[in-house]
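Q: My labmate handed me this sequence with no annotations at all. I'd like to see what the chain might look like in three dimensions before we decide whether it's worth expressing. Could you predict it?
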Amino acid sequence: MQVQLIAELSQLIADPARVLTAPAVLDRLSHDFYWYSPILKPLLVDKKADAIVQPISVDEILAIARFAGKHEIPITVRGAGTGNYGQCVPLDRGIVLDLSLMDKLEGVTADGVAVCQPGLRLATLETEARKQGWELRMYPSTLAKASVGGFLAGGSGGIGSVTHGGLRDFDNVRAFEVVTMEDEPRVVLHEGPAVHEILHAWGTNGILTRIWLALAPAVDWMQFTTAFDTYEQAFRFTQSIAVDPVWTKRLATVFEWPIPSFFAPIKQVVREDKSLALIMIAADQAEALRTAAAKAGGEVTFTGAFTGPRTQPLLSDYTWNHTTLWAMKADPAFTYLQCGFSPTECEEQFRLLRARYGDEILFHIEFMKNGEGIVIPGAIPIVRFTTAERLNDMIDYCRAIGVFVANPHVNYLEDAGRFRADNIQLLAKQKYDPRGLLNPGKMISFHKQTVS
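A: Here is what I predict for the chain of 452 residues:
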């Protein structure tokens, strides 16, 4: 069966060498960073595709979708594989559609919208946009590797979200085209509110092929770290910067001790037993921020210009979910949660969690603006894993005290925190993938209709 599949796939694209079947390649391109989760790791480690196909055009994608539909073969779309939920891991073998070769930047419009293919790396887009006076509104800590399409399909926000919100907010994603998995696949343009049918749906209801992504005017940024004696001091200072519109910021992060001790390559900015605030601020506000930090009782331990994705040190490499990676390098027993705290009740929520779990949970805050324009303490707390039962107890308790949790230890959309309550993604799947061939098993509320 696999030999026949490979032979037929090789006829659908211009270069048969772009159908990959070597066992090591199948294994590598069938996985992402799912192993951040001790729950997902044993569930997904042995999953892999029958073949990897690397298309270079929409016509090739249409041909592959038509062929897969005719033979009832699953397709799982892959960006750069930097996700953490197993989004691009094929649960039912079939084809992994690797879009990394569709990486063209078509251009940037006069009003700051990048038009590009899904495989374009975010770092490349940031670099090219800055040459024209623009920059990414937001990006994940995996900037160097992540693709635009993968970010839209599996991400939600990142560095820049403290000002510009998430991908779903403020028209940050203007439009995109997707290939459907209908009986006769077609290219469908989604623009305006229609983008929410497909955003953060893990490629379960369409294959992104062309994207219109809004940019922001470029700013000269300064990286800035400050050490505080207590977590409370660090949190309150960073929150004051994050919520005040006077400050032009791209990043506002807080780590309680001992999280900073995990950052071995930048140990010079860390102070023993002290919490750390990491802020990316407009360069012309750096001195004012230094004054504010000193007034708040902080010790400024580093300032340095951000000159693009190749900046050294690139302090965003230690924020968002890269923080989890550094913690796991220090101690493999660590994992994480993805949370949203109340902007008004957060300190009481911290107290309740500390009283119940002690140092099983370490606070790591990423401030971000929500769709209503309110800056909230988003969080990727570091958690010491013992048992699945204890981890689930922590998730349940967070929700019981009003802390939002996007559960990173499940491999389906509905509990992973970005499934919309209006079921727009499910309705899109029923419309565009009625046979359930796109990334099957990842949208558990979808049920293929049977004909009696």
